[in-house]
Design brief:
The complex is a heterodimer of chains A (about 300) and B (about 425).
Chain A (H helix, E strand, L loop, with lengths): L1 H39 L18 H8 L1 H33 L5 H8 L1 H4 L2 H11 L6 H8 L13 H29 L3 H9 L4 H29 L3 H6 L11 H11 L3 H25 L10
Chain B lengths: L1 H8 L6 E6 L4 H17 L3 E6 L5 H13 L7 E5 L3 H6 L18 H5 L2 E2 L2 E2 L2 E7 L1 E5 L10 H13 L6 E4 L6 H13 L16 H15 L13 H9 L3 E6 L4 H4 L11 E4 L13 E10 L6 H11 L2 H11 L12 H4 L6 H9 L1 E2 L7 H16 L5 H18 L2 H8 L5 H7 L4
Parallel strand pairs in B: 1-2, 8-9, 11-12
Antiparallel strand pairs in B: 3-11, 4-5, 6-11, 7-9, 7-10
Helix pairs in contact in B: 2-12, 7-8, 15-16, 17-18
Classes of the chains: A mainly alpha (about 300), B alpha/beta (about 425).
């Protein structure tokens, strides 16, 4: 009897203590999300007040489902994410393995590798845009010099060539980050495992496949989560490099949403799009966490 | 803004305080401040505050829309881009000027049409901007009389030893500039985007021929470089200024820089003319109309004083001064025979007048921005050869129709159209 009332008292104290934190979370996370969902059920065009703000149920979601531009944007986003992350993981792993060796100036190399990652995306995108300019761009000059191209091409007017600077810029900029995450994972691997393998006569390739990669799995999956969610929200890089063009053939969902919400000021439709993006990223995170068994808490795998 | 608000509250009890927002950078800002000062001397009971707004049109538009949604009465006077007036009028954000009896006959008709929605005038044109055809006079002495001649002239000039690499450069990136150029080709072939009753006609044969012509410049006659499909105004100016292009489509703004021998290789060797017609029946020389208008905020507390200020700023004297000081084109035809303007504008007065007389507004509709976005995408798809011109324009027409449906435009036009335009209301309710 006495014990129960003390528990109740402690529970109350506990709630009181976490109360402020919970209300802050409610205010900055749950309330805006709830409002966005509510907004997404309305027709609300800031530039067309004559339409009023009627409740339209799921009409905005139906319009999204019927818009080929949205599905195109989704496909472009997925394409961008898969291609750029694959390259980043591959090159990042290579860099991480190299940086994990003991050599003179290792600290300097590790810091230097991070430089592209430290450059603001918009600045990096502008630099890449200059390099792929048809007139006087270094990409054309180099490719013509080595006879891969007969004459300079205009990179941004064909879908296939427009993706090249986009993917390259992202790989250039984000591989260091991936390498650093993987390097942290590599340093957690017990060196005695390699020594034992060497004693047993295992070569480097066998060691990589049977020791390094399995033990690196948690780090790889964490990297994948980070990069997939990042890739899915890609905006500034493409906004600067291609603007989503030619036509809308490199437009990602974030740019499409930006257009609806902030250019056309379609608050209802734009909110519905935001909810859809939220649902997709949330779903992706769930798949990684549940389906692939990532342990984010540092448990043993 | 907060500071200005505080100022407004400190006003003397009998003083009317107006806020004016408009281009306020550099020489233009100095001139506006001077003219506002003179206005206050003429109207001792009125004080005008200059409220700074972003110079970038998109940003200013977004800011205005936010303020007006919140029903803010400041600024009392809004500077509108030429394609915004119908949007603001239909939204009820700016006041109709009819009750002030504006002297609309004294302005170029196109500038009045662009500011008229549902039979009423909502803004007075402050200064005009028009699309022009620049040409190298050392290579092409006489202006081309039609588009066929333009192609021939360009080819001949390019074929000369040491001739420019490009025949013509225009704005072909996927943005508003692409529409301004397209409207000129469209007019040259006698096509339109919307007809007088608001029906979508952008997939009619004339429009398809206009788009095909632009495409042929890129892929068939090769007078336009593929690069233009990523270009805005400035890239074209660089090419023309460096002597690498025979013709250029652009606004009047680069004339001053290109006439400067220290930075331009074509100083004294270029001229402007209105964009030529195609030479096909129904086609006419067309210049896309741009420029700034002044309108009264519907939530303003002092609409009468606000109109007095607009009337003052758009009066011949102030407009002439604007032309003389910052070389902006007056919207009053009468000023083009004023000797004081003769040396002020950077291009010959007659060329300027001819261009403005052939000026055509882009579609005058409240949903212009979204209509333009649809068209930008489809035109760009056709120009980069992702789609055939007919297919691209059909797709654009279908989407614009859906846009008109979704935004209730048909009902709006049928309900609000005044008897002044009976053709519109009679066909606005048509079925597909």
């Amino acid at each position: 009897m006495r014990k129960i009332s003390r528990l109740g008292h402690e529970a109350r104290l506990g709630w009181t203590l976490v109360g402020p934190a919970l209300s802050v979370i409610a205010l900055i996370a749950i309330f805006p999300l709830g409002w966005t969902v509510w907004e997404s059920l309305h027709l609300h065009e800031l530039r067309m007040p004559w339409l009023g703000q009627p409740f339209v149920g799921l009409a905005n979601y139906v319009e999204i489902g019927k818009d080929p531009r949205f599905w195109g944007a989704l496909a472009h986003t997925a394409f961008f994410t898969v291609v750029s992350i694959s390259l980043e993981l591959l090159i990042g792993l290579f860099l991480a393995l190299a940086m994990n060796r003991a050599f003179r100036g290792r600290g300097f190399v590790r810091a230097a590798v991070l430089v592209p990652w430290a450059i603001p995306t918009v600045v990096a995108a502008l630099l890449w845009r200059f390099m792929f300019e048809s007139e006087g761009g270094i990409a054309n000059a180099l490719l013509v010099d080595v006879h891969i191209l007969k004459q300079p091409i205009v990179w941004f007017i064909e879908t296939a060539t427009a993706w090249v600077p986009v993917i390259l810029a992202d790989v250039w900029k984000t591989t260091p980050f991936v390498a650093l995450l993987l390097l942290a994972g590599l340093q957690n691997i017990d060196l005695s495992l390699y020594e034992a393998a060497a004693v047993d006569g295992a070569n480097a390739w066998w060691q990589l496949r049977h020791i390094t990669l399995p033990l690196l799995k948690p780090a790889i999956l964490v990297t994948l989560i980070f990069r997939t969610l990042d890739g899915f929200r890609v905006f500034d890089l493409i906004y600067v490099l291609t603007g989503g063009g030619p036509g809308t053939s490199t437009e990602p969902v974030a740019l499409y949403t930006f257009n609806a919400l902030l250019q056309n000021l379609r608050f209802g439709y734009g909110s519905a799009l935001s909810v859809v993006i939220f649902a997709i990223t949330f779903g992706l995170a769930m798949i990684y966490v549940k389906g692939l068994g990532v342990r984010l808490g540092g448990d043993e795998t | 803004m907060v500071f200005l608000g505080a100022c407004a509250r400190n006003k003397k009890s009998n003083e009317t305080v107006l806020t004016f927002s408009g281009s306020a950078l550099g020489a233009e800002g100095t001139l506006v401040a001077k003219q506002l000062q003179r206005f206050m001397q003429l109207h001792p009971g009125v004080r005008v505050e200059l409220q700074r707004t972003p110079d970038d049109a998109n940003q200013r538009h977004q800011l205005y829309v936010q303020w007006l949604n919140a029903r803010v009465g400041n600024p009392d006077i809004l500077q509108l881009d030429v394609v915004w007036t119908p949007e603001f009028a239909a939204a009820g954000w700016v006041l109709p000027l009819t009750r002030f009896n504006p002297a609309s006959k004294e302005f170029f008709p196109a500038t009045i049409t662009a500011n008229t929605w549902a039979g009423q005038l909502y803004a007075l044109p402050w200064f005009a901007d028009v699309g022009l055809l620049y040409r190298r006079t050392d290579l092409v002495p006489n202006e081309p009389r039609n588009l066929g001649e333009l192609v021939t002239d360009a080819k001949q000039a390019m074929a000369r030893p040491g001739g420019p690499r490009f025949g013509i450069v225009w704005q072909g990136a996927r943005y508003e500039g692409l529409i301004t150029g397209f409207v000129e080709y469209l007019g040259a072939f006698g096509g339109r985007i919307l007809d007088d009753s608001g029906r979508v006609v952008v997939n009619q044969p004339q429009a398809v021929r206009a788009l095909q012509f632009m495409r042929d410049e890129l892929y068939s006659s090769h007078i336009a470089p593929l690069d233009v499909l990523t270009w805005h105004e400035e890239e074209g100016r660089f090419a023309f200024q460096n002597g690498t292009a025979v013709f250029m489509r652009n606004w009047p703004y680069p004339v001053a820089a290109m006439s400067d021998k220290t930075q331009s290789r074509v100083a004294g060797r270029f001229a402007v003319s209105p964009f030529p017609a195609s030479g096909e029946p129904g086609g006419h020389s067309t210049a896309t109309l741009g420029g700034a208008q002044l309108a009264i905020n519907a939530y303003s507390e002092h609409p009468d004083a606000a109109y007095q200020l607009i009337e003052y700023l758009t009066a011949p004297e102030q407009m002439l001064e604007r032309g003389q000081v910052v070389a902006q084109y007056p919207t009053r035809p009468a000023l083009y025979s004023d000797p004081r303007l003769r040396t002020a504008l950077t291009i010959p007065l007659d060329d300027a007048r001819r261009a403005i007389e052939s000026a055509t507004p882009r579609p005058v509709t409240p949903i212009y921005t979204e209509l333009s976005e649809i068209l930008q995408i489809e035109l760009h798809r056709a120009l980069v050869r992702q789609a055939e011109p007919q297919a691209a324009l059909d797709a654009a027409a279908k989407k614009i129709d859906a846009l008109i449906e979704r935004t209730g435009m048909r009902k709006l036009m049928a309900g609000e159209q005044k008897p002044a335009a009976p053709t519109a209301s009679s066909t606005a309710g048509r079925t597909e």
